[in-house]
Amino acid sequence: MKVLPCLVALAGVIGATRLDAQAPLAAPTVGDGALLVATPAMTDPNFARSVVLVLRRDDNGTLGVVLNRVTSLRPIDVFPELSPALAAYPGTLFRGGPAGAARVLFLVTGLAAAVVQGPEILEDLFLSGDFEQLPEIASLAEGPMGLRVFAGHAEWTPGQLEREIAAGSWQVTTGSVDLVFAEPAAIWERATALTGGVVAAVRRP
Questions:
Q1: Domains in the chain, please, with CATH?
Q2: How would you write the pLDDT of the chain (205 residues) with one tens digit per residue?
Q3: How far is it, in rounded angstroms, from Cα 178 to Cα 197?
Q4: What is the Cα–Cα distance from 191 to 182, expressed in whole angstroms?
Q5: 37, 188 in Cβ contact below 8 A?
Q6: DSSP secondary structure string, the chain?
Protein backbone atom coordinates (compact mmCIF):
# COMPACT_ATOMS: atom_id res chain seq x y z
CA MET A 1 0.00 0.00 0.00
CA LYS A 2 1.40 3.35 -1.02
CA VAL A 3 0.82 6.74 0.53
CA LEU A 4 0.16 9.50 -2.03
CA PRO A 5 3.40 11.34 -2.80
CA CYS A 6 1.51 14.63 -2.59
CA LEU A 7 1.00 14.06 1.15
CA VAL A 8 4.59 15.01 1.66
CA ALA A 9 3.99 18.34 -0.06
CA LEU A 10 0.75 18.82 1.82
CA ALA A 11 2.56 18.44 5.08
CA GLY A 12 6.02 20.88 4.58
CA VAL A 13 -22.32 24.25 -8.21
CA ILE A 14 -31.30 24.16 -14.21
CA GLY A 15 -34.46 24.23 -12.65
CA ALA A 16 -36.69 26.78 -10.95
CA THR A 17 -36.73 25.88 -7.27
CA ARG A 18 -33.95 26.92 -4.94
CA LEU A 19 -33.04 24.72 -2.01
CA ASP A 20 -32.13 27.74 0.08
CA ALA A 21 -33.91 31.09 -0.01
CA GLN A 22 -30.88 32.91 1.35
CA ALA A 23 -28.63 34.84 -0.99
CA PRO A 24 -25.69 32.72 -2.19
CA LEU A 25 -22.29 33.27 -0.68
CA ALA A 26 -19.61 34.82 -2.82
CA ALA A 27 -17.55 32.13 -4.47
CA PRO A 28 -14.24 31.72 -2.69
CA THR A 29 -10.88 31.20 -4.24
CA VAL A 30 -10.27 27.60 -5.21
CA GLY A 31 -7.75 26.77 -2.53
CA ASP A 32 -7.11 24.10 0.03
CA GLY A 33 -10.37 23.29 1.85
CA ALA A 34 -12.69 24.63 -0.88
CA LEU A 35 -15.53 22.49 -2.23
CA LEU A 36 -16.03 21.85 -5.93
CA VAL A 37 -19.74 21.24 -6.53
CA ALA A 38 -20.67 19.55 -9.82
CA THR A 39 -23.39 21.34 -11.80
CA PRO A 40 -25.89 19.72 -14.20
CA ALA A 41 -23.39 20.58 -16.95
CA MET A 42 -20.95 18.01 -15.57
CA THR A 43 -21.14 15.01 -17.92
CA ASP A 44 -18.21 12.95 -16.63
CA PRO A 45 -19.82 10.00 -14.77
CA ASN A 46 -16.95 10.04 -12.29
CA PHE A 47 -18.06 13.47 -11.09
CA ALA A 48 -21.79 13.84 -11.87
CA ARG A 49 -23.59 15.15 -8.76
CA SER A 50 -20.34 15.00 -6.85
CA VAL A 51 -18.75 17.27 -4.27
CA VAL A 52 -14.98 17.35 -4.11
CA LEU A 53 -12.96 18.61 -1.18
CA VAL A 54 -9.78 20.30 -2.42
CA LEU A 55 -6.81 18.94 -0.51
CA ARG A 56 -4.03 20.72 -2.34
CA ARG A 57 -3.84 23.33 -5.08
CA ASP A 58 -0.55 24.71 -6.34
CA ASP A 59 1.46 25.25 -9.51
CA ASN A 60 1.45 21.50 -10.12
CA GLY A 61 -2.35 21.29 -10.28
CA THR A 62 -5.19 20.37 -7.93
CA LEU A 63 -5.85 17.30 -5.83
CA GLY A 64 -9.02 16.40 -3.91
CA VAL A 65 -11.38 13.66 -2.78
CA VAL A 66 -15.02 13.08 -3.73
CA LEU A 67 -17.06 13.27 -0.53
CA ASN A 68 -20.33 11.61 -1.57
CA ARG A 69 -19.37 8.40 -3.37
CA VAL A 70 -19.85 5.88 -0.57
CA THR A 71 -19.68 2.13 -1.16
CA SER A 72 -21.25 -0.77 0.74
CA LEU A 73 -17.83 -2.27 1.50
CA ARG A 74 -15.88 -2.15 4.71
CA PRO A 75 -12.40 -0.70 4.29
CA ILE A 76 -10.76 -3.92 5.50
CA ASP A 77 -12.68 -5.96 2.89
CA VAL A 78 -10.85 -4.06 0.16
CA PHE A 79 -7.62 -3.32 1.99
CA PRO A 80 -6.87 -6.17 4.44
CA GLU A 81 -3.75 -4.34 5.61
CA LEU A 82 -6.04 -1.86 7.41
CA SER A 83 -6.88 -4.64 9.87
CA PRO A 84 -6.76 -4.90 12.84
CA ALA A 85 -6.81 -1.09 13.16
CA LEU A 86 -10.20 -0.82 11.40
CA ALA A 87 -11.62 -4.25 12.32
CA ALA A 88 -14.26 -2.65 14.56
CA TYR A 89 -14.79 0.46 12.41
CA PRO A 90 -18.53 0.68 11.54
CA GLY A 91 -18.17 2.90 8.48
CA THR A 92 -17.82 1.94 4.83
CA LEU A 93 -15.28 2.84 2.19
CA PHE A 94 -15.61 5.98 0.04
CA ARG A 95 -14.46 6.24 -3.58
CA GLY A 96 -12.34 9.35 -3.44
CA GLY A 97 -11.90 9.59 -7.19
CA PRO A 98 -10.75 7.80 -10.32
CA ALA A 99 -7.02 8.29 -9.75
CA GLY A 100 -4.89 6.11 -7.49
CA ALA A 101 -7.66 3.67 -6.60
CA ALA A 102 -5.21 1.42 -4.75
CA ARG A 103 -4.16 4.20 -2.40
CA VAL A 104 -5.95 5.15 0.81
CA LEU A 105 -6.50 8.53 2.46
CA PHE A 106 -8.14 9.35 5.77
CA LEU A 107 -10.09 12.48 6.73
CA VAL A 108 -10.16 12.95 10.49
CA THR A 109 -11.98 15.34 12.81
CA GLY A 110 -12.90 15.57 16.47
CA LEU A 111 -10.84 14.04 19.24
CA ALA A 112 -8.82 11.89 16.86
CA ALA A 113 -7.64 14.97 14.96
CA ALA A 114 -5.36 15.81 17.86
CA VAL A 115 -3.04 12.92 17.03
CA VAL A 116 -2.90 13.36 13.24
CA GLN A 117 0.44 14.56 11.98
CA GLY A 118 -0.82 15.29 8.44
CA PRO A 119 -1.94 18.67 7.06
CA GLU A 120 -4.95 20.58 8.41
CA ILE A 121 -7.30 21.08 5.43
CA LEU A 122 -9.98 22.97 7.39
CA GLU A 123 -10.16 23.93 11.02
CA ASP A 124 -10.31 20.61 12.94
CA LEU A 125 -10.16 18.57 9.72
CA PHE A 126 -6.95 16.75 8.99
CA LEU A 127 -5.67 14.58 6.18
CA SER A 128 -3.65 11.47 6.84
CA GLY A 129 -2.17 8.62 4.89
CA ASP A 130 -0.15 7.24 7.78
CA PHE A 131 -0.96 3.58 8.41
CA GLU A 132 1.23 3.43 11.49
CA GLN A 133 -0.85 6.16 13.11
CA LEU A 134 -4.17 4.57 12.10
CA PRO A 135 -4.72 2.40 15.22
CA GLU A 136 -4.55 5.46 17.47
CA ILE A 137 -6.73 7.51 15.11
CA ALA A 138 -9.35 4.74 14.93
CA SER A 139 -9.43 4.26 18.69
CA LEU A 140 -10.16 7.95 19.27
CA ALA A 141 -12.49 8.62 16.33
CA GLU A 142 -16.27 8.59 16.73
CA GLY A 143 -16.73 6.07 13.93
CA PRO A 144 -17.57 7.54 10.51
CA MET A 145 -18.44 10.87 12.14
CA GLY A 146 -14.79 11.31 13.04
CA LEU A 147 -12.98 9.22 10.46
CA ARG A 148 -13.72 8.60 6.79
CA VAL A 149 -11.67 6.31 4.59
CA PHE A 150 -11.19 7.05 0.89
CA ALA A 151 -9.82 4.86 -1.88
CA GLY A 152 -8.39 6.96 -4.69
CA HIS A 153 -8.54 10.67 -5.33
CA ALA A 154 -9.33 13.29 -7.99
CA GLU A 155 -6.64 15.31 -9.68
CA TRP A 156 -6.35 18.05 -12.30
CA THR A 157 -3.31 19.22 -14.21
CA PRO A 158 -2.43 22.94 -14.19
CA GLY A 159 -5.17 24.91 -15.94
CA GLN A 160 -7.53 21.95 -16.31
CA LEU A 161 -9.79 22.81 -13.38
CA GLU A 162 -9.95 26.46 -14.44
CA ARG A 163 -11.22 25.37 -17.86
CA GLU A 164 -13.86 23.11 -16.31
CA ILE A 165 -15.05 25.91 -14.02
CA ALA A 166 -15.19 28.33 -16.96
CA ALA A 167 -17.25 25.76 -18.89
CA GLY A 168 -19.78 25.72 -16.04
CA SER A 169 -19.07 22.20 -14.83
CA TRP A 170 -18.24 23.26 -11.27
CA GLN A 171 -19.35 25.81 -8.73
CA VAL A 172 -17.14 26.61 -5.77
CA THR A 173 -18.05 27.11 -2.13
CA THR A 174 -16.33 27.19 1.21
CA GLY A 175 -15.81 23.84 2.89
CA SER A 176 -16.82 22.99 6.45
CA VAL A 177 -16.34 20.00 8.70
CA ASP A 178 -20.12 19.74 9.09
CA LEU A 179 -20.60 19.31 5.34
CA VAL A 180 -17.61 17.03 4.85
CA PHE A 181 -18.98 14.63 7.48
CA ALA A 182 -22.66 14.98 6.53
CA GLU A 183 -24.82 12.08 5.34
CA PRO A 184 -23.30 11.33 1.91
CA ALA A 185 -26.68 11.27 0.10
CA ALA A 186 -27.35 14.84 1.24
CA ILE A 187 -23.96 16.42 0.56
CA TRP A 188 -24.51 17.41 -3.10
CA GLU A 189 -27.86 19.13 -2.52
CA ARG A 190 -26.57 20.92 0.57
CA ALA A 191 -23.45 22.10 -1.21
CA THR A 192 -25.46 23.16 -4.28
CA ALA A 193 -27.69 25.28 -2.06
CA LEU A 194 -24.62 27.03 -0.64
CA THR A 195 -23.57 28.08 -4.14
CA GLY A 196 -27.03 29.47 -4.88
CA GLY A 197 -27.60 26.68 -7.38
CA VAL A 198 -30.94 25.10 -8.25
CA VAL A 199 -31.42 21.37 -8.46
CA ALA A 200 -35.14 20.68 -8.93
CA ALA A 201 -34.76 19.79 -12.61
CA VAL A 202 -32.03 17.26 -11.95
CA ARG A 203 -33.21 15.71 -8.72
CA ARG A 204 -33.49 11.97 -9.06
CA PRO A 205 -36.89 10.26 -8.48
A1: 6-202 (3.40.1740.10)
A2: 444 444 433 333 212 222 333 333 334 578 999 999 999 999 999 999 999 999 999 999 999 999 999 999 999 999 999 999 999 999 999 999 999 999 999 999 999 999 999 999 999 999 999 999 999 999 999 999 999 999 999 999 999 999 999 999 999 999 999 999 999 999 999 999 999 864 433 333 2
A3: 19
A4: 11
A5: yes
A6: ----THHHHHH----S-BS--SPPPPPPPS-TTEEEEE-TT---TTTTT-EEEEEEEETTEEEEEESS-B-SS-HHHH-GGGTTTTTT-----EE--SEEEEEEEEEEEGGGGGG--S-EEETTEEEE--TTTHHHHHHHS-GGGTEEEEEEEEEE-TTHHHHHHHTTSEEEEE--HHHHTS-HHHHHHHHHHHTT-B-GGG---
Measured between alpha carbons, how far is 130 from 117 in angstroms, rounded to an integer?
8
- 84 prior amide bond cis, ω within 30: yes
Could you give the CA distance from residue 45 to residue 23 in angstroms, rounded to a whole number?
30
State the pTM of this model: 0.83
